[in-house]
């Protein structure tokens, strides 16, 4: 039986991967004691993933919810949150949103901790020991890994991380915002992260997809996209500073 169940939105995959790595390197958890669908081998091919998730949520001693805006927008995640609360598990809601965003959820009035706070992570570390999930302390490793994790997690939440190409040369990321442009025949979208190996070869404060309205689909903040590009250009704007315009060769909106 797994010891910890990680409840999260699939749109926060990168953040959760960083957190589960910290659980192992910083807190000493064994991967075999963690149920998290961010691990590719956690759900068997051809089996009902919903039943597997339900069974592990029911059996795990401890549930950790990674509560982001995306989490609160997911009906599936809110069901997991309510189930963990109702089953009186050892429950750790870790948030990246203001606490008052939980006022209309089962967690209203419950003590929560910040996902990106060394002080709060230290409290969680001690509490996991007290409830028997962790056995031995590794204080030096915890503090070293906590600093690295918080630095990385802040970049992920703020969209400052690097997006690598896949084997086919495509990038995959999320739309962070829509920007109005003077030329009505064009669309402009901010993306989370910075593309690795940009064609322009320069550094930018932010990356933006830029294309004609008849080229690719209309997008909204929160949409996930997969794109390939062979052309980009750095521009300097009064409100953005150095911004990279990315001109896609191909772009698909993901479900």
UniProtKB/TrEMBL annotation:
<dbReference type="InterPro" id="IPR000157">
    <property type="entry name" value="TIR_dom"/>
</dbReference>
<dbReference type="InterPro" id="IPR035897">
    <property type="entry name" value="Toll_tir_struct_dom_sf"/>
</dbReference>
<dbReference type="Pfam" id="PF13676">
    <property type="entry name" value="TIR_2"/>
</dbReference>
<keyword id="KW-0675">Receptor</keyword>
<protein>
    <submittedName>
        <fullName>Toll/interleukin-1 receptor domain-containing protein</fullName>
    </submittedName>
</protein>
<feature type="domain" description="TIR">
    <location>
        <begin position="4"/>
        <end position="100"/>
    </location>
</feature>
